[in-house]
Amino acid sequence: MSKLESLRTMTSVVADSGDIEAIRQHRPEDATTNPSLILKAAALPAYQPLLKQAVDWAQQVDNQDSVLTNACDHLAVSIGRDILELIPGVVSTEVDARLSFDTAATINRAEKLINLYEQAGVNRKRILIKIASTWEGIEAARQLEQRGIHCNLTLLFSFAQAQACADAGVTLISPFVGRILDWHKAKQPEIDFSGAADPGVQSVSRIYRYYKQHNYNTVVMGASFRNCGEIEQLAGCDKLTISPELLTELEQDQGELERQLHPNMGSDDARATLCEADFRWQQNEDAMATEKLAEGIRRFAIDQRSLEQQLQQHIKSTL
Prior knowledge:
Elements lengths: L2 H6 L3 E5 L3 H7 L3 E3 L2 H8 L5 H13 L6 H18 L6 E4 L8 H17 L7 E6 L2 H12 L4 E6 L2 H10 L3 E4 L2 H10 L11 H15 L5 E4 L5 H6 L5 E4 L1 H9 L23 H10 L1 H32 L1
Parallel strand pairs: 1-2, 1-8, 2-3, 3-4, 4-5, 5-6, 6-7, 7-8
């Protein structure tokens, strides 16, 4: 048995990729995309027809959004639709990171993406709308969940973010592991953060125990892994979204994994509901979470603009 096969006996494996061929190879249950992954996929020859379709549609549709915005949204949905033809579960499609501090705009964009999926014949139950875990994003997710639109709250680095997401009733959270490790290694390069000492692993484990202890239905999906050791330390987590490179490494490594997370492990954290002021203060007190959330939003915004530049070239070629 490979370690990937062993992992699948206790955790739902999700592909962290927009690459159709990688998804076809690894056969994940679900898949996640984001602006960085869409940008990477858009450079592949197989996706050039989708770019053209997105531009053609954007030039014909009549709504309040620009041609460029419409082309980006159509491309994201087209890639998501193609992924869904290969997997049995759900795909996550991300709202523009530049809307991360605007609740109303996030809701409007999420509803637009869902409408595009439904126009393409995809049931909304197979879609998770990815939103950054800002206070505004979490509030948008609360309202969207009430409207039957399921959400994946991403760029999650702090316990306060996890508490607020659970109280908002979001379907799934994506706490980042590797980026937490990156921050701590940069601050304390002399420390050994391997195995169970990995601060990203510790963060996800704490959130998982808290959710199970207090009977939250929100799914915990660890994300942003730097190595297979982090994945092995989180065996048993509800879901793990893993890059194609690490999926291949796990598939080629023989051995049975020991389950690390169990629903009945218990938590030392009392259940708490955070108001906006409490959330913002606790987030502010966590330097790592504050810095990595801001950095993550900036990075996704940069890749979104790069994608727009690619699509702009296609638009110019049609004029």
